[in-house]
Amino acid sequence: MTANEGRAVRHAEAARSGAPGWVAAADRIEALLAAMTLSEKVGQVVQRNLGEENIPRELAAALREGRVGSILNAVGAELTNELQRVALEESRLGIPLLVGRDVIHGFRTVFPIPLGQAATWDPEGVRAWARIAALEAAGAGVNWTFAPTVDIGRDPRWGRVAEGLGEDPYLASGLAAALVRGFQDHDLAAPGSIAACVKHFAGYGAVEAGRDYAAASIPEAELRDVHLPPFEAAIGAGAGAVMTAFTALNGVPATANDFLLRTVLREEWGFDGVVVSDWRSIPELVPHGVATDEADAAALAALAGVDMDMAGGAYAAHLERLVREGRVPEARLDAMVRAVLRMKARLGLFDDPYTDPSRFPSPGCDRHLEAAREAATRSAVLLKNDGVLPLDARRLSRVAVIGPLADDGYEQLGTWVFDGDPGLSRTPLAALRAALEPGVRVDFVRAIETTRSLDTTGIPTAAEAAARADVAILFVGEESILSGEAHSRADIRLPGAQERLVRAVAGTGTPVAVVLMTGRPLALAAVADVVDALLCAWHPGTMGGPAIADLLLGRATPSGKLPATFPRMTGQVPLYYAHPNTGRPPRADGFTPMEQLPPRAPQHSAGYVSFHLDAGAGPLFPFGHGLSYTRFEYADIRAEPAELTPDGRITISAEIRNAGERPGDEVVQLYVRDRVASVTRPVRELKGFRRVSLEPGERRRVSFELTAAALTFHGRELRPVAEPGAFHAWIGGSVRAEPRVSFELVES
Ligand code: BGC
């Protein structure tokens, strides 16, 4: 035995005996590396799927031989502890395992989908909810989550907008960092902390036509200004890992993209964590057409900087030979292994890889359910309200609850809920029944079996129930499976016969409140005008029912704000607020919609501005929009001083007043526009936000500080610049914020 092997074996003994701090982590890693055979090194960069409750013999043998560094989809203390035991006690070097799982928006207790959480604009809440997810997952032996997803989603046809944090890089960056802090807490080695994996690097949200897995083409300046900032923020918050995207970015698949993985991630950002492929995205370099076969794919990925092969089998089958033949330098493999061992050390796995569920709060406990209720309450966005909401329970004697999503404990959970327990779900129907006085009659009509169903035979019964009621509450939208991975839609209206259902119920003349459960922004033009209120609850999770009942009945006041634009029609997308102005921007009076064009209208008749003849120019509900049961007024916006120097600061502030009758939370938003620059700049960009609670009549001045750094963008030279000149700033409750102030960025 060499000296290094001796150290490695002592390390293994120390790890088994649980002796902490036996040797500094870096030494331990180098000692292990020096003692490893080539096959053991390759083992560390192999992630295998389990996906069942037993350990197959072949996998156990691979663990003993040190041919596996990580497992995904192994859940449960008994199973994961046994996996760790085999790896630790029965392999030569006794290296613990990374155990990965998609803990995306909760574990047993399910919180709103990430897009819904983004609608809270509440980093502290988002952090706390991720912490609960981490505690529940850690008790089941998971030490690594494949979250957060921070792909900027500007095309709601893409099913994965549900998993992301919306269309805006500033909002997504703040929330991404908060999610990482929630999962990892202050110390990755502390019980209950799990490593975060920010994904999918990069540009995945820009897939062509919103069709999952399609190619993405993004100019570098836009990539750097829009798509990369949330990744950088998550990494700045300490994210342990990064996952590559399935897609090709500007022709180079992300899993073989050395510009992304080496230049940006390692060199510019100094990331020293683990880069993991997406599921089989290494062998998929072959169908992408950049690798001749799986061995070639393994070489490309390893050389580009992918440290671990998720379920692809390509590293396991080929990497050892590629190193022996010199195609992949052993030093490269060493760097990959070092990254994996470093993450294991940071997680404290060398000291204690086992889990003990009794150390953690029990999944689905009351405290977790209460947090899930708060999350669902804060994430709901009141899109429209003609005054029907909040319902006055004292005046109700009969309520019609209608629709396929009113009483479905599974569908309200949303996408990516491998470990969610539908048995814990409280549905809106159950919650409304519990909340209303016993004297109030609740008639429930599902009307349509699924949200996709085209069968209209139940609609007349629904309309009859509505006609007899004081109010009809309709629960429509998308069931879980219509969003998420591989579930893109070409038409984002309400699917199935739901538009007909809504129109039939609205046609009765009974006031109608629609509650939407959805994984994406929907095109609601066909229904928005005929109903009295629209409340977007996203897929609200386990406690969606009580949260929605509280909001409908005015026991809680809506405070969510849209993290993504709601178009009128699918054909408008991608439609997002931070677009450039164009040389011919739309003006309210500047264009004529199709139906108003006279026959044989001359060529100039529609107006030479940027709009669609059949959809107009703007969205149905803009970014940042969200109503309340109270009213907020903004006044007296100030920029102090009026000039910003390159090293200075400027304070933009405005007074906000709760001008209504109820207490409420408002998300105060700051937008900025660079008036003249060397490249076209967005018409508005979010640069600050804050959630404030105000009592009726209460006023408060809300201030945001800006530095020149906040005004930088990637200019013609593709370097970050803040160009001197005039800026406008707005503060308000949506991107349509009104009070405006000007300031100047000066040279010095
Ligand atoms: C998804 C990833 C996920 C992985 C593991 C892939 O299909 O794209 O987001 O983390 O599977 O389940």
Output the keywords.
single chain; 748 residues; six-stranded mixed β-sheet; 29% helix; 18% strand; disordered N terminus; binds beta-D-glucopyranose
What does it look like?
It contains 21 helices and 26 strands. The chain has a 6-stranded mixed β-sheet, with helices on both faces. A 5-stranded parallel β-sheet has the order 4-3-2-1-10. Strand 1, helix 4 and strand 2 form a beta-alpha-beta unit. The protein has 748 residues and is α/β, with parallel strands linked by helices. It is globular. Helix 2 crosses helix 15 and helix 16 packs across helix 21. The protein starts with a helix and ends with a strand. The structure holds beta-D-glucopyranose. Beta-D-glucopyranose (BGC) is lined by residues 102, 146, 199, 278-279, 485.
At a glance:
This protein is α/β, with parallel strands linked by helices.
Number of helical regions = 21
What is Rg?
27 Å
Helix fraction bin: 25-40%
Distance between the termini: 65 Å
Structural class: alpha/beta
- Average predicted confidence as pLDDT: 96
Shape: globular
> How are strands sequenced across the largest beta sheet?
11-16-15-14-12-13
Percentage of β-strand residues: 15-25%
Low-confidence stretches: 1-12, 14-22
* Count of β-strands: 26
The kinds of small molecule bound in this structure are:
beta-D-glucopyranose
Biggest β-sheet: count, sense, barrel?
A: 6 strands, mixed
Helix and strand layout, with pairings?
Elements lengths: L2 H15 L7 H11 L2 H7 L1 E4 L7 H8 L5 E3 L4 H13 L8 E4 L12 H5 L4 H17 L4 E2 L23 H16 L12 E5 L18 H8 L1 H8 L4 E4 L3 E2 L2 E2 L4 H11 L5 E3 L8 H4 L5 H11 L4 E2 L3 H11 L5 H17 L19 H14 L1 E5 L12 E5 L25 H8 L5 E5 L13 H10 L2 E7 L20 H9 L5 E6 L7 H4 L4 E4 L7 H9 L79 E9 L2 E2 L4 E10 L5 E11 L10 E10 L4 E9 L5 E2 L5 E2 L3 E8 L7 E6 L3
Parallel strand pairs: 1-2, 1-10, 2-3, 3-4, 5-6, 6-9, 12-13, 12-14, 14-15, 15-16, 18-26
Antiparallel strand pairs: 7-8, 11-16, 17-19, 19-22, 20-21, 20-25, 23-24, 25-26
Helix pairs in contact: 1-2, 2-15, 3-14, 7-8, 7-16, 8-10, 13-14, 16-21, 17-21, 18-19
This protein binds beta-D-glucopyranose (BGC).
